[in-house]
Write a structure and sequence with these properties.
The protein is mainly alpha-helical and 119 residues long. The protein has 5 helices and 2 strands. Helix 2 crosses helix 3 and helix 4 runs antiparallel to helix 5.
C-alpha cells in the first residue's frame, strides 16, 4: 500500500528534521521510529542516495554523517504515546512543541498502558 504524498512528505520531513537536530546536538547514535512503513523502506533502501525524492536523498546524506543511525518502523498501535503527542500539537505551524505540563504525557502513557485508544 502506498502512502499518500502529503503524508509521505510529512513523515520524510519529520525524519529529516529529527536527524538534522540530532546532528546539530552531536547525538552519535540517533534512532528514529516512524509509524509509517513506506518512508522507512525508502530511506533504508541501498539506492536512497539516487532517489527521485530530494528529501530521501537529504536524509541519506544525514544518515551517512552519523556513525550509527537506526531508522526502524514502529506500527502506530505500538507507538500510541508518540502518536498522541503528535495529535496534541498545533497543526498550523512547523515548530517543535514544548509541553509545559508532564500531565499531558502522563495521561497518554496511562491510556496506552490501560489499552485505551488515543484520539
Amino acid at each position: 500500500m502506498l502512502v499518500p504524498l502529503n503524508t509521505l512528505h510529512t513523515e520524510l520531513l519529520g525524519l529529516y528534521e529529527g536527524l538534522q537536530l540530532a546532528w546539530y546536538l552531536s547525538i552519535e547514535r540517533p534512532i528514529a521510529q516512524p509509524d509509517s512503513l513506506e518512508p522507512v523502506k525508502m530511506v533504508n533502501d541501498p539506492h536512497a542516495n539516487v532517489s527521485h525524492l530530494p528529501l530521501v536523498r537529504a536524509i541519506n546524506s544525514l544518515v551517512k554523517k552519523c556513525l550509527i543511525t537506526n531508522i526502524i518502523w514502529i506500527p502506530q498501535e505500538c507507538n500510541m504515546v508518540a502518536d498522541g503527542l503528535a495529535k496534541l500539537t498545533a497543526h498550523d505551524h512547523y515548530q517543535p512543541s514544548i509541553f509545559d505540563s508532564p500531565q499531558e504525557v502522563l495521561n497518554l502513557i496511562t491510556r496506552n498502558v490501560t489499552g485505551l485508544t488515543i484520539s
